[in-house]
Each structure stands twice: as C-alpha cells, then as structure tokens.
Design goal:
The complex is a heterotrimer of chains A (398), B (381) and C (128).
Chain A (H helix, E strand, L loop, with lengths): L8 H8 L5 E2 L19 H9 L23 H9 L8 H7 L14 H22 L5 H12 L1 H11 L32 E2 L13 H7 L10 H5 L5 H31 L1 H13 L14 H12 L4 E9 L7 E8 L2 E8 L2 H17 L33
Antiparallel strand pairs in A: 1-2, 3-4, 4-5
Helix pairs in contact in A: 4-10, 5-6, 5-10, 5-11, 6-7, 7-10, 10-11, 12-13
Chain B lengths: L4 H11 L7 H4 L7 H6 L1 H8 L24 H12 L6 H5 L14 H7 L46 H21 L2 H4 L10 H9 L1 E5 L2 E5 L2 H9 L14 H10 L11 H15 L5 H4 L5 H8 L8 H8 L8 E3 L6 H8 L2 H10 L14 H7 L3
Antiparallel strand pairs in B: 1-2
Helix pairs in contact in B: 8-11, 8-12, 8-13, 8-15
Chain C lengths: L13 E8 L7 H17 L4 E6 L6 E6 L4 E5 L5 H13 L34
Parallel strand pairs in C: 1-2
Antiparallel strand pairs in C: 1-3, 3-4
Helix pairs in contact in C: 1-2
Classes of the chains: A mainly alpha (398), B mainly alpha (381), C alpha+beta (128).
Chain lengths: 398, 381, 128
C-alpha cells in the first residue's frame, strides 16, 4: 500500500470534480509577500518604501497577531507544548502558529489555515476508517453524525479546552503568543470546509437532495456548504447572533486541534499523527445507539428481513402487567421465525412493538466485529500482517 | 520647580492700589489690654528690681495706638495714600538681578493730555504696543528665569556610593586640608568655598602627595603650596563636576597607599573641613550627630560609606541563571498589575481606544478632582 | 452530542501557577528561599505547568493555581518555610481545580450499572 500524502491531495481534490458544482469560497492559497521582518506590509507599500529609502521609515502598523519571534519567550506556549507531550521536533513557533486563526491574521503564511486543513484531513481519515471498520452497517446519516461527534468543531473545541488552550480577548501583536488568537469578526472565512455550493441552493432550504449527493457535494460532515452571504442573511435576532458567535468560537478552537495534528504530521510524520489522533480523539467515548431516530421502524424492519432473506418479523407479547391499571407494562419481542431479533417494553402494545422494532434495527445496524478491528492505516506499519478485508455492509435498507 | 512664589505674591500687592492693613493692625488679638498693662507695671518693676526691659506685652508687638486726630476724612485719606505709594519692595528683591514685572505707572488722563497737548490723538487700536503676558506666566517667559537662576547646591549632584571611590576622595580632602594647614591659611579658608577641582590634574597632584602619620599627627610630603594654590585660586571656573573615577581605578589607588594615613587625628576644624570637602566632592553628607564621634579619617570613611543595597530576588535569579533553560517559567521584574494582565490578553488596546473615544483619561483621574468626600470628612470644604 | 470525555489529560489539570513574593517583607522570607532553591527543580519536573514569578510589594506571599476548568486556588504562604511551601505547591499541582466536596460514595461514575437495572419481567420470577 502506498503512503498517504495529504499534502498532495489538494490538487486532486480541486480538479477531480470540477463539473460537479461551483467551488466554495475558500482561503486563497496565494503567497503573500512579507519581506524580511515579520510585519505584514503589503507588496505595494514595500515598493514605495524603496523609493524613499533615505527618509526614516514610517512606524510599521501593529501586527494582527504576535510575532513568532516571541514564541520561545512564552511560558504558556512551552507549558502547552509539554502538556501535549509533543516531540522536540515541533518548534514552539509552529505551535504558536497553530494558535493564530485566519480571523485574527488573514495572511495564510502566518495563520493556521493550512495546518488546520491538513490536520482536518488526517483526523477525518482516521475517524472515518475507524467508524467504518468498527460499525460496518452504520447508515450514512448516522456515520456523518458519528464523525461529527468525534471530529466536529464542538468536540474539537472540548478537546482544545481540555488541553488548556485559552483565547485572547482581542488578537494583537502584544498578546501572549500562547493564547488563541481569534475574533468573531465580520470576515467569516470558511477555511476547513471544502465542498461545493450547490446550484439549487438558491431554491431554499427545503429543497434538499438525497444522501448520495451529500456524499459527493457537501462538506466532510454532510453539511451543505453555503456561500457566506446567504448565511448572514438569516433572522437578525440576538439568538442567531449568539449561535453564530458560538459557531465561530468552536471553529477557532477546533482549528487549533486540527493545526496541532497537522503540525505533528509535518514535523514528525504519519505514525506520530495517527497515535496522537488515536489518543486524543478516538479515545473519547461515543455511544452510537443514541444517534438513531426512526420514523417507521416496523416497516424498516420488514424491509430488512425481506432484503436479507429472513422470515418476516412477527411481534409477540412476552409478558404484561396491569393491563387494566393506570400504568400497564407490555414486553414485546420481535421474532423472525424462531429467532428473536429484539424486545422492547412500553405502556401500550403499539409503543412496545415499535420499541422492540427499534431495538432489533439497532442490533442490526450496530453490528461490530469487535474492539480489536483493524483499519487500513494499520497496514502502513512496517511488518504488518497481511490485510484481510473487513466486512462492510451493502448499505442502508430504504 | 520652585520659583520664588513669594515674589510673585509680593509683586501684585505693590500694583494693587488699595492700601492693605498693616500686619500688626491685622493681628488684633491680645490677651492683655493696654489699660491692664499699666496695672501690671508695678509687678514688673518688682520683678526686675528697677527699670523693666522689653515691652510690657511681649506677645504682641503692638504698635503705638494711633493718635486721635480731629482731621477730616479727606485729609486722612490723602496722608494714607501717600504712605502706600512708598516703595515697600524688600531690599533683597530690589537688588536682585531677576527680571521683575514692571511696576504700576500712571499717566495723565485723556482730558488733561488734550488740554496740554492740542495735537494729541487717542489711539484706535493696540498697534505697536509691547506685548507682555499675564503675571501668572511671568516666570515661564524666556529670559525671566534662565539657567543662571536655577538652584545649584554646594554638594555634588552625583552621589558616590562605592566605598573605594569615597576613600580616594577622602584622601584628597585630607591632603588638601593638610596642605592648607602647612601654608597656614587653613583658619582663613576653613569656612570658604574651596575650588571644586574639576581637572583631573589637580586631583592627581593632590593624590600624589604622601601623608605620614605619627601618633595622629600628620605631615604632608609633597608640593603643598601647589595644592593650596589650586584650592584657593579665586578664578571663576567653568562649571565642572569632580573627575569620575571608576571602581577599578579607585581599588588600584587605595591598594598603592599605606593604610596608616587613615589614622589622622581630627580636631574640630579639620573634621568640619573634611566633611564639607567630602560633601562638595561626593555629595555624601555626614550627619552632625555622627560626625562628633569621628576621631580619625577612618571613622569618617566608615560614616560616609554605605553598604550596597541588597539585590532584588529577580536580579538574584537572573544573576544565578536559575531558570535559564526552563521555558515554562517566567520571572517578572516588576509587579504584574491590572494593565499588564489586560495587555497580555490583548484587551488593553480595546479599553484604551474606547476611553479615548469618550475623552476619558486612560490612567488616573484626569482633570477630575480626587475624592471630594474625603475633603468633606476632613472639613476642608 | 453524546460524546463524553473518557480520558483525562495525563498530566493533570493545573495549567498555571502564579508565585507572588515581596522583596522586603519578612513573611516572604521562606517564599524567596523557595523560589531561589526549590522552584528550579520543581519547574523542571513539571514542564506542563506555566510558572509566573512576580513581586507583589508590601503584601504577603501567595501562590495561585489556575486550572483547566477555569477555577483558581490561591494559598497564602506567609511565614512558611521553603519545604512547607513545596508541600503547598504540590497540593496545588495535584488538585483538580474542582470545589472541595465530601465523597461518601466509594465510586463516582457516569456509567449506568454494569449489571443493568433489575426487571420484574425477566428471569424466573420471584415467588411471593
């Protein structure tokens, strides 16, 4: 198996699906000129400076974020470095850069956009392969939600806060480089969401395609990528403002985790990054049975049995109590032939039957080959055992 | 800057036309009335056994009660105004070389002028008039309070703290005093200001002389007359500070001397001369109370030298390089105040901007008076 | 979101220690000695904690621990000897930052019981 090189992916990602839709607004990957000093003087300014070289240069405007020169002096940064047990190969300057979000410093040479994108691909890759191998029958919608639960911005924000990352009140040059530099500004730069703006987005929110198109067109979490203008034109209540603030905040904190993993990948390599993802992200507990919500469980179960060639499911009352009382309880079991698929209890016969159906469906969907499941990236280790293909289900029922 | 505030207060009172009540008249409080003092004459006579010295009432320098006159009001007024026109400026102020504000001058009224000079035309504007600022800014104006009016102390402005350097200066002072004594002009020059000795050569000349001490009696071997000459020269020198000696230099010098010179016995004039000279050269003034106990030059040196200030903890840590290779430790030299904390999280620039936007002082109270309530409580208002 | 953090950060929850001292006051004598003699070793042994040493003239010496949950714990160490202060610093380092509370249960767990909740409708039933 070939080594994965996410640094080479971007080209493929950009070009493979050109016909599918309009590329989303994203951070320009241009190389902005920043000459010698760390100040972000635009290129036009530098040309004027050359002409009047004899005159004293005007005082440079303050940097939008702390200069990386100051990174070795920051005790906060050193402590964070040690707290994450990062390798000595990762310099403090890189860690400082991981803490600068594009909202603070728009210059891609000095913010964490590129590292965060690299990190997000690594995180998503490892979480996806883990989810798919561990629960091979998860429906796509649940898989998206499970991925979000592991690698979504809110979860990554929790991780960053557990690391002890603190945000600066306002980003600037004089701020301690060990603080997260972000601000909920007007420039809403979508940096780590890569996808396509759908051509039918103009038709409104109700107009939604099926799951297959979500896989192709939407972001990693199956979310529709919207142009920035449409997102701001929502209801102008304080509630939505607060929601937007929270989103931006979790995005900023999440980008720190992603950027740190990106930095580990660039400085220490694939194995270190995988170990880090495993210990900090995949080690978190997720109960996927809570992610399900069924609309027609009985019909779905019947379809499942038909598709798999089981006998049609039959609901049988197993026990009951207090049928004439105020609080009756029925225990219903679902049987396919002689095999019991699941059972559920409820206050009425119908509820109990539905619950039993849901239990049996979950039992199907949440099949897992075990905790010691091997994932494809395990094969990259030297001297790995030969690969045995895992069982992957054919797909959803309806 | 203190600029003779009393002068400024004194001058407008001259300009004010209204005569002020005299100081004695303002102090009308007296415990003994003049009538009663007549009654106490007999006991004063008994106490002093004859003519009693001093005024009868020693607490108030009471003026003689004004003679009761029957003159009309106008006559009284004219006589009092003539007295107020007399120049009451203190003699010291009158003779000073300070540029004082002009005094009040009176010119003839318009009508009188027109009567005497038919060609007189009243001015229509202030063209050609000299511009002088208000009295409150008098001393700020150029030429009124320049460099020459600044206070210059007798003692050196730069204080010497190192013990070795002090020793060098003390030796110089001893040599100079001895030289004056040998020349026999010490009594005359003890109370005068010695030449400051800005040139390095003078100092080297003084330090080159040998001091031999036998039972406290010191004899100078060297060019005593030249040293005394340099000290007593009346030539007005250019402002110069005593030559600066580095600690290493001073250490070398003190090592080269025999330490016996410090056993010079001091009598009172010599003691004061040394103290004065040391103050002039180094800025170190030995308190009177301690000076009396100093019997030798060694004592003087002990009194003048101070132990160096102990290092601050932050300086000690820096010197030891205690946290040299530890990146997670930050040692602050100064207290981390609220502003420092806000700066560290980046909020301070926002606060500053908002305060400036509202025309509020960034730090402190600005023009607002401080704590009026405290003045109420202490009865100031 | 049903994700729960299972794994605490291995290195504990104290992220910053502020050490305040006074150069002049006698109550800071032990603290100054601690900073001079014991702190370098302690800081080297705990690189995950940020140490900020700063004077606070005219006040008693104080150590403040800052924790990941956003809480702080200050301890006044006036008149303590360097080794007593070391104990206090270790206490702050090992603290979780939570409010102190009495634990009268042997185990605190967010998990439901391993054996499940007893149900009357299963098993052999109970003879009444």
């Amino acid at each position: 198996m070939k080594r994965i090189r996410p640094s080479r992916w971007s080209g493929q990602l950009l070009q493979a699906r050109r016909g599918a839709g309009i590329p989303a607004a994203r951070t320009p990957l241009c190389l902005a000129v920043r000459c010698q000093s760390t100040s972000s003087v635009p290129a036009s300014d530098s040309s004027t400076l050359d002409s009047s070289s004899s005159a004293s240069p005007p005082p440079a405007p303050p940097l939008p974020a702390p200069s990386f020169d100051r990174a070795p002096q920051s005790a906060k940064l050193a402590a964070l470095h040690a707290r994450l047990s990062l390798s000595k190969k990762i310099p403090l300057q890189t860690l400082a850069r991981a803490l600068v979000t594009p909202s603070a410093d728009a210059n891609p040479n000095f913010n964490n956009a590129n590292l965060a994108y690299l990190g997000s691909t690594i995180i998503n890759f490892h979480v996806y392969e883990y989810l798919v191998c561990k629960w091979p029958r998860l429906p796509m919608a649940i898989l998206y939600e499970a991925l979000r639960a592991y690698a979504g911005d809110e979860s990554l924000q929790q991780i960053a806060r557990r690391w002890g990352v603190e945000a600066a009140a306002a980003p600037g040059e004089e701020v301690d480089p060990g603080l997260l530099q972000w601000k909920a500004g007007e420039s809403n730069v979508v940096n780590t969401r890569w996808g396509y703006i759908r051509s039918e987005a103009a038709k409104g929110k109700a107009w939604r395609r099926g799951l297959s198109s979500r896989v192709v067109l939407d972001s990693d979490f199956g979310d529709q990528v919207s142009s920035s203008s449409s997102s701001s034109s929502s209801s102008s209540a304080s509630e939505s403002e607060r929601l937007e603030y929270n989103t931006l905040q979790s995005e900023a904190f999440g980008s720190v985790v992603q950027a740190v993993i990106g930095a580990i990948y660039t400085h220490c390599g694939r194995d270190e990054a995988k170990a880090f993802v495993k210990s900090h992200i995949l080690s978190r507990e997720l109960d996927p049975s809570r992610l399900f919500q069924f609309k027609l469980p009985t019909r779905e179960l019947a379809m499942l049995c038909a598709r798999e060639g089981f006998e049609p499911p039959v609901a049988r009352l197993e026990s009951e109590t207090g049928r004439l009382s105020r609080t009756p309880v029925y225990v219903v079991g679902i049987y396919s032939g002689k095999e019991k698929l699941g059972e559920g209890t409820g206050a009425s016969l119908d509820v109990a039957r539905r619950k039993a159906c849901m239990t049996s469906l979950k039992a199907w969907y949440l099949y897992s080959p075990g905790n010691k499941v091997r994932v494809p990236s395990d094969m990259m280790e030297p001297g790995a055992k030969p690969w045995t293909a895992p069982h992957i289900d054919i797909g959803e029922i309806i | 800057m203190r600029r003779l505030q009393s002068l400024q207060l004194a001058v407008p009172s001259q300009c004010a036309a209204a005569p002020r009540p005299s100081f004695a008249a303002a102090r009308a409080i007296s415990t003994t009335s003049p009538a009663r003092s007549k009654n106490t004459d007999w006991i004063r006579g008994k106490l002093w056994k004859g003519e009693a010295p001093g005024p009868a009432d020693p607490y108030t320098q009471r003026m003689e009660p004004e003679a009761q006159t029957n003159l009309p009001e106008e006559a009284l007024e004219s006589s009092s105004s003539s007295r107020s026109r007399r120049d009451k400026t203190p003699a010291a102020v009158r003779e000073s070389r300070l540029a004082l504000p002009g005094r009040r001058t009176e010119v003839a009224a318009e009508k009188e002028l027109q009567a005497s000079d038919p060609t007189y035309v009243p001015a229509a504007d202030a063209e050609g008039l000299e511009e002088i600022g208000p009295l409150s800014t008098w001393w700020e104006q150029p030429g009124h309070w320049g460099e020459e009016s600044e206070f210059k102390g007798f003692g050196s402005a730069v204080k010497v703290v190192e013990k070795e350097v002090l020793e060098v200066y003390l030796r110089r002072a001893v040599v100079e005093a001895l030289a004056l004594q040998q020349k026999g002009v010490f009594a005359e020059w003890a109370t005068k200001k010695w030449s400051e000795g800005g040139a390095r050569g003078e100092m080297d000349q003084a330090l080159a002389a040998q001091v031999e001490v036998q039972d406290g009696k010191a004899t100078l071997k060297g060019d005593a007359s030249a040293i005394a000459e340099a000290l007593t020269s009346e030539a007005e020198e250019v402002e110069s500070t005593p030559p600066v000696i580095t600690v290493e230099e001073a250490r070398e010098m003190t090592k080269s001397w025999d330490s016996s010179w410090k056993n010079v016995a001091l009598d009172n004039p010599l003691r004061f001369a040394l103290r004065k000279r040391l103050y002039q050269l180094t800025g170190v003034l030995i308190p009177d109370a301690k000076l009396a106990a100093a019997n030798t030059a060694k004592h003087i040196l002990t009194l003048a030298a101070r132990d160096p200030k102990p290092l601050k903890l932050a300086q000690v840590l820096e010197k030891r390089n205690a946290f040299g290779d530890l990146a997670n430790v930050k040692v602050h030299e100064r207290r981390v105040g609220p502003i420092d904390k806000e700066v560290a999280v980046g909020r301070w620039k926002v606060i500053e901007e908002e305060l400036k936007k509202r025309d509020l002082p960034v730090t402190g109270y600005g023009d607002a008076p401080r704590n009026k309530e405290r003045d109420w409580l202490t009865g100031k208002i | 979101m049903t994700v729960k953090a299972l794994r605490a950060i291995a290195d504990g929850k104290c992220k910053k220690l502020d050490l305040h001292y006074c150069d002049w006051a006698g109550s800071s004598k032990g603290m100054n000695g601690f900073i001079k003699s014991l702190l370098p070793k302690f800081a080297a042994a705990n690189p995950q904690i940020e140490f900020a040493v700063s004077p606070r003239p005219g006040k008693h010496p104080v150590i403040v621990g800052h924790y990941i949950n956003g809480r702080t714990k200050p301890i006044c160490v006036r008149n303590l000897s360097p080794y007593e202060i070391l104990q206090k610093v270790e206490l702050l380092r090992d603290a979780s930052g939570e409010k102190l509370r009495r634990t009268n249960k042997a185990v605190l767990s967010t998990k439901p019981s391993v054996r499940g909740i007893w149900s009357p409708y299963h098993g052999k039933g109970m003879a009444v």
